Amino acid sequence: MKRAALILVLLIGLLLSWAAKDFPSWGNPQAPASSSPVSSHFIASTGVDTEVPNMVTAVLADYRGFDTMFETVVVFIAGLAVVSILRGGPTRRTRDRKFVVDFEPDLIVTNTVRLIVPVIQIFAFYVLAHGHVSPGGGFQGGVAMGASFILIALSWDLKTALNRFSIDRCFTVAALGIIIYAGIGLLSMVLGGEFLDYAHLSQVLPVSPEMARYHAMLGVEIGVGFTVTAIMFALYASLSTDGRMQDGL
Amino acid sequence: MSDHIVWIVLFPLLGSVVCALSGAISKKICYPTSILSMVLSVWASVQTLLQAIESPVHEISYILGGWSLDLFPRGVGIEFRADLLGALITLVVTGVGLIVALYSKVPVQRETPGKEPMYYALFLLQIAGLAGIALTGDAFNLYVLIEVAALTGYGLIALGTNRAAAATFNYIILGTIGASLYLLGVGYLYLKTGTLNMVGIQEAIEAQALHNSPAVQVAFVLVLIGILIKMAFFPLHAWLPNAYCHAPTTTSCLLAPLVTKVMIYVLIRMVLSVFGVEFSFESNLWTEIMPWLVVVAIVCAAVMALAQREIKKMLAYLIVAEVGYMVGGVWIYNYYGLIGSIFHIISDACMTLCLFLGAGIILEKCRTTHFDGLRGLFAKMPLTMIGFFVGGFSIIGLPPTCGFFSKWYLITGGMVSERWEYMVTLMFSTMVMVVLFFRLIERIHLAVDESGKNLGKGHGDLGLSSEQTRFDEAPLSMLIPLLIAASIVLIVGVYNQEVVDQIEVFLRAYDLPTGVTYK
Q: How close does chain B come to A172, measured CA to CA in Å?
């Protein structure tokens, strides 16, 4: 079986290398992916269309905003699926009690975390809000934010973290994130555009259509950030306790 | 421009968010919410289909984000494109979704108590993903939506019986490999064409004559194998039987009719609209290999179905066989074969729905779907069994059910292309299905068990107490959806010409051989 798999892998490797000789050379400006009308439009007109300096964010949140909405939904689904499968499952693995020790949260650790968490959270907000001009955005900001809650759970215990951010609230926040994203899309539809056509938001915002796209991108990034933060923490809480939501690591 | 096309996806999406939020308020609103959002979604897809029929080019294009084709190059924004094929499949997806949503009340409460909000949220997102796959005109957006549909599928299946977790794990591994291969193929296509829009890729392949480019040919192989894994084509089907068998009733009712069928739609979309007829069928050797693989697939799946002693497992192998039919209809490469394939997607969705709804009721009332537990069911649940066997007769291909007409076109296609091996296989598999379903009828009516031992006391006696054969139908919330599904099987069969007319309008745009030469 292993040998058959090896032969298969080698064959696929050969096939892929055969295809690779047909690739355009590295960094070639004439390559289709660089010279096609679509890429040229992104490179030349992102600033004109959206006022956003960071081209990647504009492609992600505006030109292909529909993909990103569903990527956010994918994160949401992951949380829903993991929590619903683990919650009250029929086969409960009984944890070896020998290794569970009653312990007081460590003074040095908790005090350090007390200092660090606000900084992490502010940095998360920065990454989220600064996605337009520098690398960053909702996914990265959300992960940093979620990590701060996981840090709290690690240094105190899961109960302390769940008191601040319960699982039900996680799903409320995650659903809220999707509502923000889809809601901005729906609002632009109500105002006479297509779904996610942020330019039409200029009718309710006191800015030009291009700046409306700029601000709406921030809005959808915030939505993404909400969902990712909540699901990050929900996944940790659920997976580290086999769905019981107590004790934990 | 009309917005109906995007509402098809948005109604289930918003419904699922409401369901997820309802966990904090009241679990009772999940069932009505999902029905409401499915009704609206069906309404939107009917509107879209009507618009597509009326439009002069027979398709509707909707660019999300307002990057209209008049001002921006094609492919800058993501395009939703409903031609007649896409609109028909979308209607099938949302229609099946609505029927299963109606049906879900009793089984969801019994099988996933306390988890209704999450179950219905995943359920609705599954439909949003599948409907989106049928509508999108962007190769990467298709991948994202495949991911949505697959992940919700894993979640929905894993909520089943104890053994569902292992089956789901198997499915996750294989499904992820399939999706990755598809994504890699799309990456190669982007490398050579510089666009992700399906029409754009097709135009670039034609304009730059990429038919002999190794990268595009490898992309074709990768995309093809990825989709074949996702649709459970025979040697790659290993994930399907256990996943559908151990899943909760509502899940298998939703996934079994839709997932494999939507993937065949993706295959047809890729072959016709992305790579093009000439590339897919004439400039590589797949045209020779695939029909033989199909023959092997149908024969093996049919034989394996014959070996099963449990209705759900038997139906799962039937799906694998049906997938072989439809892939064969595409690769025999002619007009009639493709009509057959597309019509069979529609009719197979209807009849598989019927069978799984019926099997779900049997499971609900008898707590087993093993052949030994079926004696006397015609007396106990006559309406359920009628609904179930309408689906069964359609799988066999008895007129006037829709299965007869789609199989007719498939066989015509095989004949026109002189693919005798495909025709013979279809006939063989039809015979196997006759055996499968009439054996079931026999097990219900006769008092014999697995080993052939007689359990009754003479003529007409099933060896059951009067308690066990008393009229005891399924709850109406389960029975009515089954009867609706059964009548749809008959209605689509009787009005098959109307459906085929639309498929023909769609296929006329492609240069397919018809094989009819009158000399």
A: 6
